[in-house]
Specification:
Shape: globular
Number of domains: 2
Distance between the termini: 51 Å
Number of helices: 9
Bound molecules: 4'-deoxy-4'-aminopyridoxal-5'-phosphate
Number of strands: 12
CATH topology of the largest domain: Rossmann fold
Order of helices and strands: EEEEHEHEHEHEHEHEEHHEH
Strand content: 15-25%
Radius of gyration: 19 Å
Strand order of the largest sheet: 3-4-12-9-10-11
Length: about 325
């Protein structure tokens, strides 16, 4: 069943065509200049997820979670969708919430970039700020508390434990990468936030191509500047995360990701977010060890939400 086949009837009919039907089918773009020096038989491609209507990879799980909740009747009778988010998931929920008439509430660390908080409010979301020192875990604990205290008001979407998160990638990101590389992908690398991207895409590719290498990437330290990513050893482990799926795990320094983010803008014309810079660092590390191969990673969002970090962008 595709999204377009679904019509859900509450008091009036909710249609998932229009904006939601444009989620996914993002371009797969080659890196051409930051790859100089690699073996000529090694290609590196990136999945350009900022092409999604809500501006990030999180459109895929947000839409799938909402769609499942509507089918199961979880979001009937005016309940608010509640979740914790570092920003992008909230923007995606709020985008489709506005389009479909579903009210949304988020617990979000007060340290999230001002662009993200403003965007959430612009889209009509209720935003509950949590202690920046507690990071994304503080937001998770707040969402759990609200869901337990007011079950009649909130439906807790719980992106960290909801299988519809990784299923979205199993159903879309994985098949798209397989098709766009003509089944030639040899290595897939993704950063870990909820881990939904890596779990869903990795499982699909592994089923199609038993020899494909699945590689996870995360920050090298508990306090880091890679918004959207988690340092797993020191964080609340997402229920959907299975660390045995990836054969290799790479750690990326914030400074290395910042430098690469700027290089991507200046050498590739790709104005992307910091977790994309981190993904490129990891992908180039993997590609640098190969004689031949097709390395694919995913760039979760564009750079606009990080513009207030002037020291990052205005370097010489
Ligand atoms: N990068 C950014 C910018 C994100 O917002 C997220 C989602 N938190 C990720 C990477 C990680 O994606 P996932 O939750 O699928 O692991």
């Amino acid at each position: 069943m595709t999204l377009l086949d679904i019509r859900i009837t509450r008091s009036n009919s909710i249609s998932l065509d229009g904006l939601p039907s444009h989620v996914g089918n993002t371009p797969l773009l080659p890196l051409r200049r930051v790859t100089l020096g690699l073996s000529p038989r090694v290609k590196v491609f990136i999945k350009a997820e900022w092409f999604n209507p809500g501006g990030s990879v999180k459109d895929r799980p947000a839409l799938n979670i909402i769609q499942n909740a509507l089918i199961n009747g979880d979001l009937g009778s005016g309940k608010r969708l509640l979740d914790s988010t570092s920003g992008n998931m909230g923007i995606s929920y709020a985008t489709f919430g506005a389009a479909l008439g579903i009210p949304v509430t988020f617990a979000i660390p007060a340290s999230a970039s001002p662009e993200r908080l403003t965007l959430l409010r612009a889209l009509g979301a209720e935003v509950i700020l949590t202690d920046p020192l507690e990071g994304s875990d503080g937001a998770i604990l707040m969402a759990r508390q609200l869901a337990a205290e007011r079950p009649e008001q909130y439906w807790y979407a719980n992106q960290y434990n909801n299988p519809a998160n990784w299923h979205a990638h199993y159903l879309s990101t994985g098949p798209e990468i397989f098709a766009q590389t003509n089944g030639q992908v040899t290595h897939f690398i993704a950063g870990l936030g909820t881990s939904g991207t890596l779990m869903g895409t990795g499982r699909y590719l592994r089923e199609q191509l038993p020899n494909v290498q699945i590689i996870s990437m995360q920050p090298d330290a508990p306090f880091h500047g890679l918004e959207g990513l988690k340092h797993m050893p020191s964080a609340i482990k997402p229920g959907i995360y299975d660390e045995s799926l990836a054969g290799t795990n790479l750690e990326v320094r914030t400074e290395a990701a910042h430098e690469m983010t700027l290089r991507l803008a200046r050498e590739e014309g790709l104005f992307v977010g910091i977790s994309s810079g981190a993904a490129a660092v990891a992908a180039l590390q993997v590609a640098g060890q190969l004689d031949e191969g097709v390395v694919v990673t995913l760039f979760p969002d564009a750079g606009y939400k990080y513009l207030s970090d002037k020291s990052l962008w205005e370097r010489k």
